[in-house]
Amino acid sequence: MTRSEFVKRLILAIGIFFAVLLMIYAFQILLLIFAGCLLAVFLTGLAGFLEKHLKLPEELSLILVIILIILLIGSGTWFFGQEIATQVDKFGESLRQAYNAFIAQVQQTTWGSQLIKQATTGVSDSSGFKLLSKVSDIFTTTVGTLFDFFVIVFLGLFLAFEHRMYTKGFRGIFPERHREKVTELFSHVSRVLRWWMFGQFMYMLAIGVLSTLGLWIMRVPLALSLGIFAMLLSFIPYLGTILSAVPAMLIALTISNQMALYVLILYVIIHMIDAYLLAPLIQLEAISLPPALTISAQILLAYLAGGLGLLLATPLTAVVIVLVQVLYIRNVLGENVILIGQHHPDEQV
C-alpha cells in the first residue's frame, strides 16, 4: 500500500467515523433538514409542472405555487375555519366524555373491571384519558416545537429557490468522474419523493372526504373534525389509518354501542375502498413500498426520534431503497433494476 492510498483510506475512515457520530448525536437535526428537503422537493415539483405546461420561468412558477398554497390555506380558513375551530373546541371534551362512557361500560363486565383495575394500579384515574387525549393533537407534538416548524419551512423555501446552487455545490465535493452519477442519483431521489407525495396526498384526500361524508351521513357528532383528523393521520401509512378510527368510535359510543359498531364498519369499508380500488389506481403513477419494511421503519424511527421520526419514516424508507438500488444493485452488482416509482421496462437504469 502506497502512502497516498493509506492517506485516502485514513481520510475515508475518519469521515465515516464522524458521519456515524453525526447520526447519533444530531439525528433530530438531520430529520429537520430532511423535512426541509422534502418540502423543497414538493414545491419544486409543483413549480416544474407549471413551468412545463404554462411555459413560465422557474422562479416565477415557484412564486406562483407559494401564492396558490397560501390562497388555498387562506380560503379554507375563511370558509371552514370557524366551523373547524368550534368543533376542535368540542373535540377534547367529547373525547373525555366518550372515554368515560367507554370505561363505564367496560367496568360493568367482570373481566373488564379486573383488566382496568390491573391497568390503573398505581396510576391516577385521569392518566388514561391524558394518554388518549394526546392522540387529538398528535400533529402538534410530532413536529416537535414551533421553532422546528419554522426551521422546516424556511429551510424548504431556501432550498427550493436555490436548489440548483446547492446541488451544484454538493456535486463539487466529488471527483469529476463521479459527478454525473451524483446528479443522476439526485434526479432519481427527487422523482421518487415527488411521486410518493403525490400518491400520499391523493390517499389522504380520499380518506378525509370519505370519512367526513360517511360520518356526516350517519349523523356522528364532529364529523368534519374527525374527517380532517383521519386525513392528517393517514399521512402515516398503516399505523395512522388504524389510529384514525379510535376517536370516531369513542365519540360514537356516546350515542350507542350500535353506532360505534357502524362507525367501525364504515372505517373498514373506507380502507378497503382505498386499498383495493384507489390505491392500485394511484400506484399506477405513484410508488408502492413494502408494508413490512415501512412499518418496521416507522417503529424504529418513532423510537429514535419520536413523532417527527414517525412522520418521515416512509419517505426516508423510499430514499434508502433508491440508494440501495442505484449504488449497490446497479453500480456494485452491475444489474439492471427498475426503481420504485418506475412502471415500464424501458425505464430501467
List the helices and strands and how they pair.
Layout: H1 3-25, H2 27-54, H3 58-107, H4 110-119, H5 127-133, H6 138-143, H7 146-161, H8 163-171, H9 176-217, H10 223-233, H11 239-253, H12 257-282, H13 291-330
Helix pairs in contact: 2-3, 2-7, 2-9, 2-13, 3-11, 9-10, 9-12, 9-13, 10-11, 11-12
Descriptive report:
With 349 residues, the chain is an all-alpha fold. It has one domain. It is built from 13 helices and no strands. Helix 2 crosses helix 7, helix 2 crosses helix 9 and helix 9 runs antiparallel to helix 10. The longest helix has 50 residues. It is globular, with a radius of gyration of 24 Å. The C terminus is likely disordered.
Task: Produce a short descriptive summary.
This protein is mostly helical.
Features:
349 residues, mainly alpha, 81% helix, globular, disordered C terminus
Count of alpha and pi helical runs: 13
Estimated structural class: mainly alpha
In whole angstroms, the N-to-C terminal distance is 35 Å
Return residue spans where pLDDT drops below 50 for at least 5 consecutive residues.
122-144, 344-349
| Rounded Rg | 24 Å
**Biggest β-sheet strands, sense, barrel:** none
What is the global morphology?
Answer: globular
Order of helices and strands: HHHHHHHHHHHHH
How much helical structure, as a percent, in the residues?
over 70%
**Number of separate strands:** 0
Number of domains: 1
Beta-strand portion reads: under 5%
Mean pLDDT reading: 76
